[in-house]
Hints:
- With 326 residues, this protein is α+β, with helices and mostly antiparallel strands.
- The protein has six helices and 19 strands.
- It has helices at 17-41, 94-106, 122-130, 187-196, 256-263, 307-325, and strands spanning 10-14, 48-54, 59-65, 71-73, 76-78, 114-116, 135-136, 149-152, 155-158, 174-178, 204-208, 219-220, 222-224, 230-232, 238-240, 246-248, 251-252, 268-276, 281-292.
Amino acid sequence: xxxxxxxxxxxxxxxxxxxxxxxxxxxxxxxxxxxxxxxxxxxxxxxxxxxxxxxxxxxxxxxxxxxxxxxxxxxxxxxxxxxxxxxxxxxxxxxxxxxxxxxxxxxxxxxxxxxxxxxxxxxxxxxxxxxxxxxxxxxxxxxxxxxxxxxxxxxxxxxxxxxxxxxxxxxxxxxxxxxxxxxxxxxxxxxxxxxxxxxxxxxxxxxxxxxxxxxxxxxxxxxxxxxxxxxxxxxxxxxxxxxxxxxxxxxxxxxxxxxxxxxxxxxxxxxxxxxxxxxxxxxxxxxxxxxxxxxxxxxxxxxxxxxxxxxxxxxxxxxxxxxxxx
Length: 326
């Protein structure tokens, strides 16, 4: 990275559950090191801050660590890793900054056409400053018309349904979504719509979702019946919504989402594994995802050979040798 001498956050990229499973042994020592680092950083049961490099602000910031939405797993109490470490300046949390870092690595042209599936957030303002042609929107409900603007507070907000976008074919070079697809019952149709509106030569979809690396298949939590009623398979899981209230989570995504992205027309789909306390990223395993239309852009994808991977691999080897000598 040009902005800092700290290592990259990227540890590897994966295109299937089989590829992930084939690399598990390679990451075991690394995971042990990362877990030990996290245990020592989580020193208080109250909110606290850890300094880290913010890829958005391009400066060192005190990242806020909170226990909101924490859980108990494997006998350990953990924060919601992707939701914590909010930068006090840009207000991007860990997963948002990871998406921004992936986008920065791809170096898209500022003159490109970009669609962001949000409009009332600070994230929208940040991306709008980077991409003047940015189009943002919110989902206002089933009674609103896609492509139309509606008054909300002191501004107008564009309504879009990601399952039936109002945009023409190949309208955008880039589509960005942040924790959206888990709230869409027909997420395959949403994937297909994102593919449709992307440029066929170099269009890219970048997104975050709650992802479960231990699941080969996506677990469906709820469905929508033909009469429009919601059928709950598991107890309702409600996530926050920038418009207020909450949004129902319809599924917990597993590795099959990558194959489903290819099935709707993307030429490639990748899960990018990241970690790096030096940039305010904790916990394992955390991913952001990308899907590409058209031919590969040589050298544009993040690589498993990034500096962070080598740095942690050396650290893990050192720890293993120490343990063997003890």
